[in-house]
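Pipeline run #58 for the internal structure catalog. This entry was flagged by the ingest filter as a single-chain record with no existing model, so it goes straight to prediction. Upstream metadata was stripped on purpose; only the residue string is passed forward. Reviewer on rotation: M.T. Logging verbosity set to normal.
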Amino acid sequence: MTSGYRWIGGLGMLLACGVQAATQQDIDTARFNGLAYLVKSQKGPGHWSGAAGLGVQTTAAVLEAMQNAGISKGGTYSAGVSWLVNVEPASVDGLARKIKALQAAGRNIAPSLSRLMSLRNSSSRYIWGVYAGFETGFPDTPLALSAVKAGNSGAYPDRTQLLATTYCEVLPSQNADGSWSYVEPTTASPAASLSGAIIPTAYTLIELVSISAATAGFTYSCGTTYNLANAMTNGANWLLTKKNADGGFGESGQSSVLETALAYLALQAVRPADTALPAARDYLLIGAGKPRADGSWAGDPLQTALALKTLPASVLADTAGNGIPDAVKTALGIGTSASAARDVMPGNGQAQSGRNQATALSGGGLGQSFSYSLGSSFTGPFTLTAGSLPDGLNLDGATGVISGVPTRSGDFNFSFSSSQGVTTASISVVAPAAPAPVHVPALPGWGLVALGGGLLAILRRASRLRDPE
């Protein structure tokens, strides 16, 4: 009862100071508009992409945000799952996120889980680097640990390895101030890489909460006595030092949606009643980090998905049962019938050239001079925003001319920005056709004998001409 009065009193102080707190309507509106943005921004193949090289991470995060809203079927969701099934992430980070998202979707993750285990830096501990053979790092190790647990029906398969990892790798890597850096501290680590950061600290704390529950009552010795509960407390306290005046979290006093969302999820896991949580949510919903007019956070699917994950889990009404909740359809401006959702699905006959389906530009020949002007249809300046041009070709940002000599054949998809916005296009480079084979008619046996005799006579005559004696 006392805590209830304290909460009411705190709310009264906020109101008295003229500071508004996010309401349930703010939460609902942000959720509906954010999900609508994700539906609209899905690419034709089924994935979501933001920053270059983060397609897997972004798609996995979007699927988890949809699952948090009770969405687990329909064309949009299924296309994202199918794309994720068929992509092979190069990094441990991407592979771990893929495993978690697909496990929640009920898909077979055994091959991916086996590959993740093969990328470990130690056969006796659960430690990973960014890539196979790279030094142990964060958040790669906690993300991979989370994937291992998800792939084993929510339980870590080997408690001894888990304890060895925690007490011999994770806890010793915590900095004196309570933070974690991106790499495990070693004598070879550059000093600049050892500074604590919000992203590795947040992911490590989230996983330590799961580890503490799984290892309750168990102890482990690794030369030095470490206290798991104290490590989590110190980590949470360090995160709070990154809280800024606007309620958000960020390095150097500058809040960001990404860091605020991750700090929120970590603090919520370690101490769900922390007083910094309401302010962080207000920053994301009605403060400086609030959604844009298009429903996104920072115009990025990854940050939008992470912000949506900070909202309470919910199952949204879906009258048509097609995977797009009624409230999201309203935000999209479409009807609530099953057929209405087809208008927003990328591909499948409804693709829009230049948006979710690449516009085919003039093709080129391998090793042949190529030139194509984007300026004939668009107004500059031009900038390549995603994908890549064929090897050997370059884009002139002022004129929009793509020129050069292609050095590799294949289909190349890319996006470019102009005054008309971002457009997706493709250029096909075709190798020159091989010359038609010369057909030599087969000779019967007697013909081969006659031919051989004729050649022998010619050789003898040539020999006599060289040496008349």
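catalog note: The longest helix spans residues 445-466.
catalog note: Residues 1-18, 347-351, 436-452, 455-469 have pLDDT under 50 and may be disordered.
status: ready for reviewer M.T.
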